Amino acid sequence: MQIRTRNLYLIPYLTWILLFVVAPILLIVYYSFFNVDGHFTLGNYQKFFTPVYLKMTLSSFWYALLITGISLLIAYPTAYWLTKTKHKQLWLLLIILPSWINLLLKAYAFLGIFGTYGPTNKLLESLGIGTQQILFTDFSFLFVSVYIFIPFMILPIYNALEEMNHSLLDAANDLGASQWTTFRRIIFPLTLDGVKSGCQAVFIPALSLFMITRLVAGNRVITLGTAIEQHFLVTQDWGMGATIAVFLIIAMAFIMMLTRKRK
Amino acid sequence: MKKKNGLGPKLYLAIVFVILYAPIFYLMVYSFSSGEKMYNFEGFTLKHYKEVLQDTRLLIIVLNTLVIALLSAALSTILGICGALAIYYVRNLRTQNALLTLNNVLIVSSDVVIGASFLILFTIVGVKLGFISVLLSHIAFSVPIVVLMVLPKLNEMSPTLIDAARDLGASRWDILSKVILPFITPGIFAGFFMALTYSLDDFAVTFFVTGNGFSTLSVEIYSRARQGISLSINALSTLIFFATMIMVIGYYFIAKRNQRGAGMGVGK
Q1: Architecture (CATH level 2) of domain A47-258
Q2: Contact A212/A106 with Cβ under 8 angstroms?
Q3: N or C: which end of chain A has fewer CB within 10 A?
Q4: Which region holds residue B230: left if phi is over 0, alpha if psi is between -120 and 50, else beta?
Q5: pLDDT digit string, tens, across residues A231-249
Q6: CA-based nearest residue in chain A for residue B201
Q7: Phi, psi of B33 (to 5 degrees)
Q8: Closest chain B C-alpha to A48 CA, distance in angstroms
Q9: CATH code of residue B231
Q10: Residue of chain B with shortest Cα separation from A197
């Protein structure tokens, strides 16, 4: 009976896995071997290893790293202090709420805020710095990306902090550990899983943020995602797009291994 | 035991909150400006709202988005429960891990890769790009998160519960509907809401698999925002914000009444 039960649940689930997990990856790999005219070729891979594409890949990784790092730096203290507020569930809700607002709307808001006549420039002017070009720069890309990803970084860290056994802190306290030692030796290691999931949740999307680059970064920042979108939807060179996607998948697998949770 | 926050932490949290909310309020404030730009607030007006409400095309898109979100969340919740049960019943640890890894592929995949690969898939299989392709992709990328929300609840459940039910003569369906499902309900709700959020929030995947005729809100906003600033987008986002607020507050009270800690679709 147990066996029949098991098979029953596996059927729809395995169908889903085959259709939407395995097949798409195989198709991406398959397509990466074809050029625009539909002929079999290794040319896409050759092209990927030219300086143009390598530089783009490198800069995409660099930006993703920066976005993840800054998000973590801001999110960790937020999550930590959030667990100590009175109505923490409510505050957490308020932190998550902006993440329910469509990301494009938030990016769009910055078109106004960072605009030439926007409030940021007004502030800079009144400080005597003068009007700056903020929109369509690396800064605007980083700021908007971090802004969008922060809730996703706070959430897993908050959960990890909440799951932590608080008697350990008391024990550390009783044994005379300073606050910093307690944090470094107990709190941070115990919440490392949360940090890892947060980094994973930020880093991978950050590699492929084509909409933000298009909206607020002009063509200054080109990420792997921008390139894939360009090849699939603009130039219709699916082969080259698939090739970049293959490398993105490899990067993702690598990151997944890196951030695997200890069991 | 727990120390309360001092002034520094409070200030820090306040700054984070201000930065998180400032852009949203900025958008909302300018939805009432009678000017056409997102600076120099001119006079108060509701004309942008009127514009939005009279835009039938936009209203159809809103409806599309909601239908897609609700349908995909419901269907992916069912599929996700099946998935969680399947993983739960597989006793071989290695198979279990393999299934979990496959499950997580779509969660960690970047939207663009999912979008591009689904585009290839639908083109090859011959699914017309439009409502069906968008719905299928939303179901596809929501399933794994439901599995991840439901599975911990299943693992929390004591296996003796099922044994007891079986000993007392419960059928397989009884065990599922009277023992397992009630126990994992918080996980199911959390999964459903996550799926809903994923669907409403998705832009990149939809952008790839939507054809010419069909559009969801985020795709529409993107194409409008690329043309520059139009305060009707502001009006629209204000409306969306309040709809979201109502949803979240409603959900908060449901979760509170249940007191089961399904907490905001976060799950623990």
Answers
A1: Orthogonal Bundle (1.10)
A2: no
A3: C
A4: beta
A5: 999 888 999 999 999 999 9
A6: A102
A7: -80, 140
A8: 17
A9: 1.10.3720.10
A10: B108
